[in-house]
Amino acid sequence: MWLGPEEVLLANALWVTERANPFFLLQRRRGHGKGGGLTGLLVGTLDVVLDSSARVAPYRILHQTQDSQIYWAVACGSSRKEITKHWEWLENNLLQTLAIFDNEEDITTFVKGKIHGIIAEENKNQQPQGEEDPGKFKEAELKMRKQFGMPEVEKLVNYYSCSYWKGRVPRQGWLYLTVNHLCFYSFLLGKEVTLIVQWVDVTQLEKNATLLFPECIKVSTRDSELYFSMFLNINETFKLMEQLANIAMRQLFDNKGFTEDALLPKPSKPLKNISALKRDLDARAKNEWYRATFRLPKDERLDGHTDCTLWTPFNKIHILGQMFVSNNYICFASKAEEACHLIIPLREVTIVEKADSSSVLPSPLSISTKSKMTFLFANLKDRDFLVQRISDFLQKTPSKQSSNNGRGQKKSDHTQEETPELSPSGPLSSSHSSPLDNQLASFCTEKVPTASQGLLKLFGPNCDEILGSRGAKETMKEESWNIHFFE
């Protein structure tokens, strides 16, 4: 493949020149091919430990000029056939043209421009496939496919440097986590270790620390137990392994393949060495946690979250926590576990307004609902952007016209049921259905969400309770509650 010209200061370090002309060199990595010997073992070990690209592309072409000490890598190849094709193209198309130039700087500029043009033409002919992964990650994915014989459809999620414990000897290498497999490769002084484990075969994942295995991850399968240690970030690795194993189990139960989330928003800044698939999985994990924490519908998607405080009138303090905004809900979870959880459906929100800031209450935000409840948030870092996002979601919620129609139906139902005809004996006559039955029928057929009013208002009081001592007690309770809330 053609490369964007990159500087190479030491052209002959660990490389052997096989062909040369006045402007280009074709080189092979030492130890690759026949007769590697001890040098091949050392170079191969270095390539694996340092994650060198030469492990995948052991051939390369360098551009050089006679008086310059700087070389430029213009092409690489995984096989002699591939690199020979590039070499022949350069000899047939550039050698005669370059011989005309008198200035070496002009020669280098022309070669670099020609190579950039070839790469641009190749990228133009390729169909864009969603979000581009970083170049370093593409290189790692190519290594993974070549080393383990994976098909093109197998997607690499992330890769980590670690050690695999074979007996009591650690083997330093690279752990590749794909959608369907856990793979490991190590090559140290001629000793090669290759592992391929399907996620559906994993029975248990454990993170523990012992004297023999310091801070390691134990992967249990039906047939064996594998130990990996010496991670740079063991928590991140273990969390991703758990997520991939859980996804594999769900696919096994649902009989569905893994598909990337097309609705995932693209990042404002390109993320280095993080694939689009890894970002997709991180977003899925956040969405699953959000839905499980607040018990929301399966299709609810988290848009974002921010730190803030919430005024709680029951104990009259500001609770520190996080606000979560999705397409249908505004939720709040306190930092202290189980201290306070709040769920506000956007269909119930009537007013979202910015209150006046003060030293006691910086950047406050007030949210009012149809039930005349007001929630006061404060200490919001980007209040203007948050208000804009909530406004966008409110515009997408069902129109108020349907809710107004529902209210009209409720009012008509109540007017019909307020004067039921009673028989002399007390119970309702058979020619008229009971108000409770009518109320249940209208309540069940309505599409308006439940819990909009109290049960007493919805179903009405019983006549016997109003006249008896029980009715008097209920009236006293209501008065006591009214006095309590008024205070």
Structure description:
With 487 residues, this protein is α+β, with helices and mostly antiparallel strands. It folds into 5 domains: 2-125, no CATH class; 135-254, Pleckstrin-homology domain (PH domain)/Phosphotyrosine-binding domain (PTB) (PH-domain like); 303-396, Roll (PH-domain like); 404-418 and 432-452, no CATH class; 453-487, no CATH class. The chain has helices at residues 37-49, 80-93, 95-98, 104-125, 135-148, 234-254, 276-294, 383-396, 400-417, 435-445, 455-459, 463-467, 469-486, and strands spanning 2-8, 15-20, 24-29, 59-63, 71-77, 156-166, 169-178, 181-188, 191-198, 202-208, 216-221, 225-229, 302-312, 317-326, 329-334, 341-345, 349-354, 365-369, 374-378. Residues 127-132 and 406-448 have low confidence and may be disordered.
List keywords for this structure.
PH-domain like; alpha+beta; TCB1D9/TCB1D9B_PH-GRAM1; GRAM; GRAM domain-containing protein; single chain; 487 residues
